[in-house]
Amino acid sequence: MAASTAGPGIEIPPIISVDDHVIEPPHVWQSRLPSRYVDIGPRVVTAPCEISYVGGVFSWTEGTGRPTSYWYYEDLHYPMVRTHSAVAFPRDELQMVGITFEEMQPGAWQVAPRLGDMDIGHVDASLCFPSFPRFCGQAFAEASDMDLALLCVQAYNDWMVEEWCGESGGRLIPLCLIPLWDVELAAAEVRRNAERGVRAVCFSEIPPNLGLPSIHSGYWDPFFAACEETSTVVCMHIGSSSKMVSTSADAPGAVGSALVHSNATYSLVDFLMSGVFVRFPSLKVAYSEGQMGWLPYILDRVDVVWKENAAWGGVADKVPEPPSTYYRDHVFVCFFDDKVGLANIDAIGLETITTETDYPHSDSTWPHSKELLASQMGHLTQPEVDAICRDNAIRMLGLDIPTAAELRDQAAV
C-alpha cells in the first residue's frame, strides 16, 4: 500500500483505524445458538419502518414507511438505519431512514468487500465495534433470558474471532463483548478471549446510564483486573452508555452530533478521579469517536479541581498524584477530523493519539482518509505522523505487524 504525501517530505503510512464498525451478517446468531433459541435469538426480518432522531433520542414506528431490515431479539425489534452504512450513499441522501442488507455497502457486513474497501481507503488494519448489540453489547444486558444473553455474547465473540477476523489475514482486529450484567462472567470472558489472542474489549463509557454500577463503586475491579492481567484494552465508544448528549427534547440531530465528545469527556474525568489507575497501574483504556481537541483543557481542569478542592472533593485519598499524570500511561484517544487536536499534540501527548476512519458510518472519512490526514498533518514531523497513523495503534493493541518505518525499509529493499 503506497504512502500519501502530507507536508514536504512527509508521508501518510498505511493507516491502522482503531474505530470502525461492522454490521453483523444475518447468520451470526442463527448459526451458533442452540436450536431451542433460534426463534427468539437475534434474527433478521424485513418490515416497513419510519424513523426519527430528535433531541438525542432515536425512535421508530414499525408497519409503515420504507422496507427495512430489522433485528428481532426476544420482544425487541431494532431497525437498521441508512447512516449505519452511510458510505453507500451520497451525503445529500443520508437521511435517517431504514435500510435493507441489499442496499448496504457490501463491505459493511462482508469480509472480502471490506478488505477491498480498506485498500481503497489506505487502511491496513481495522478494529470494528458492533452494531446490533450496540457499542458495548448493552442489548444483551437488557434481555429477559440471561442464559440466552450469555450465549449471544459468546456467539458474537466466536464469530468475531473465527469469521470476521479469522478470514481477514490479520487485517481485521478482534474486539469482543462482555456480559455486562455479571462482573465475574465479564472477567471470565476477557480471559477466554485473551487465550486466543484478543487484546480489546468493549465497555460502557458511563455504566450508570445503563443501570449498572459506576467505576467509583469498585464493582468493576475484577473486570479491570482481568484486562490488566491479559493486556486487554478497555475500549469505550461514544454512545456506549445508550445516552447521547443533547440540549433539549426538540434539538435537531446536528446539535447532538456536535457534542458527541461529551460522553468521552465525562468518562475520562470519571477514570482520572476514581483511583482505578492507581489500583491497576498497567490498565489501558481507549476512547473512540470522541475526537481529542477538548483534552488540554480537561487535563488542566482536573488538576486544578484536585488541588483546590482537596478538602471536600472526595478524591484526595484515592488519587495521590495530580489526575492528569495518570493520563499518558493509561489512556488512548482517536480522531478522524480534528485540526485543533493536531495543533495541540504536545499538550495531549503524542503517544496517546490514534487514528480512525469510522467506516461505514455517516462521519466516516472513507475513501478520503489519507487525503484528509495529509491536509491536517503538514506541520508534523514524519515520526509524529507515523505514531498517530499507525505505530501507536500497534503498541496499544500489541499487534505483530510492521511499524511505519519498517514498512518503508521493506519497500526500499
Record the SSE blueprint.
Blueprint: E1 4-5, E2 11-12, E3 15-21, H1 27-30, E4 43-54, E5 57-62, E6 66-73, E7 76-79, H2 111-120, E8 123-129, H3 138-141, H4 146-165, E9 172-173, H5 183-194, E10 200-202, H6 221-230, E11 233-237, H7 253-258, H8 261-274, H9 276-279, E12 285-288, H10 295-308, H11 327-330, E13 331-335, H12 339-342, H13 345-348, E14 353-355, H14 369-376, H15 382-397, H16 404-412
Parallel strand pairs: 3-8, 8-9, 10-11, 11-12, 12-13, 13-14
Antiparallel strand pairs: 1-2, 4-5, 4-6, 6-7
Helix pairs in contact: 5-6, 8-10
What does this structure look like?
This protein is an alpha/beta fold and 413 residues long. It has one domain: Metal-dependent hydrolases (TIM Barrel, Alpha-Beta Barrel). The protein has 16 helices and 14 strands. The protein has helices spanning 27-30, 111-120, 138-141, 146-165, 183-194, 221-230, 253-258, 261-274, 276-279, 295-308, 327-330, 339-342, 345-348, 369-376, 382-397, 404-412, and strands spanning 4-5, 11-12, 15-21, 43-54, 57-62, 66-73, 76-79, 123-129, 172-173, 200-202, 233-237, 285-288, 331-335, 353-355. It has a 5-stranded parallel β-sheet with strand order 10-11-12-13-14. A 4-stranded antiparallel β-sheet has the order 5-4-6-7. A hairpin with a 2-residue loop joins strand 6 and strand 7 (76-79). The longest helix is centred in the middle third of the chain and has 20 residues, at 146-165. It is globular, with a radius of gyration of 21 Å. It starts with a strand and ends with a helix. The relative contact order is 0.15.
